[in-house]
């Protein structure tokens, strides 16, 4: 059921899955980059369901902490399907992953608080790895035409 729900919602984004853009690439906007990589099919489906595609294709700039499909799969069974039917909650969670402006990894400091688009703040940790509310950044500084993407290994939830 999970796969069919995601597949149905991502049909419009059925494209080949190239590697993530490098930090020097302006391959497209945030949505184009996410839609062009199969590791973000659940995120793209969620952004589509929440009606946030046009916003994230907008001028920005935005910093997106982008959870992978594996991060969504780690949520309790049925969570993704429930969220796809609860658009206000889905929107609150997705906008918690977005910070206005372009925040590169070199701009981060341990203990830094960053206010998200949903109004709540995330806490940045810098040590052996970079974390955002406990989620580990697995790839940083994927530059888009309207901001930057940092890949994270966990879906972060507003408190």
How are the strands of the largest sheet arranged? 2-1-7-6-5-4-3
Total number of domains? 1
The proportion of residues forming helix, as a percent range, comes to 25-40%
Low-confidence spans: pLDDT under 50, at least 5 residues? Answer: 1-26
Q: What is the end-to-end distance?
A: 28 Å
Overall description:
This protein is of the alpha+beta class and 159 residues long. The chain has 7 helices and 7 strands, in the order ααααβαααββββββ. Strands 2-1-7-6-5-4-3 form a 7-stranded mixed β-sheet. A hairpin with a 2-residue loop joins strand 5 (130-132) and strand 6 (135-144). Helix 1 packs across helix 3 (41-49).
TL;DR of this structure?
This protein has 159 residues and is of the alpha+beta class.
Give the secondary structure arrangement, pairings included:
Layout (H helix, E strand, L loop, with lengths): L1 H9 L19 H6 L5 H9 L3 H4 L5 E6 L1 H5 L5 H7 L1 H9 L2 E3 L12 E3 L5 E6 L3 E3 L2 E10 L2 E6 L7
Helix pairs in contact: 1-3
Can you tag this structure with a few keywords?
FAS1 domain; alpha+beta; 7 strands; disordered N terminus; seven-stranded mixed beta sheet
């Amino acid at each position: 059921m999970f796969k069919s729900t995601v597949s149905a919602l991502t049909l419009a984004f059925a494209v080949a899955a190239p590697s993530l853009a490098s930090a020097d690439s302006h391959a497209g906007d945030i949505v184009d980059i996410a839609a062009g990589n199969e590791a973000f099919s659940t995120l793209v489906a969620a952004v589509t369901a929440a009606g946030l595609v046009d916003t994230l294709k907008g001028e920005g700039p935005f910093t997106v902490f982008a959870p992978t499909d594996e991060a969504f799969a780690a949520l309790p069974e049925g969570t993704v399907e429930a969220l796809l039917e609860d658009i206000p909650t889905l929107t609150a969670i997705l906008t918690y992953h977005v910070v206005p402006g372009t925040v590169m990894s070199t701009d981060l400091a341990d203990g830094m608080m960053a206010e998200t688009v949903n109004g709540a703040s995330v806490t940045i940790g810098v040590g052996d790895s970079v974390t955002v509310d406990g989620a580990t950044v697995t790839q940083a500084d994927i530059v888009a035409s309207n901001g930057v993407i940092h890949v994270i290994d966990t879906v972060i939830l507003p408190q």
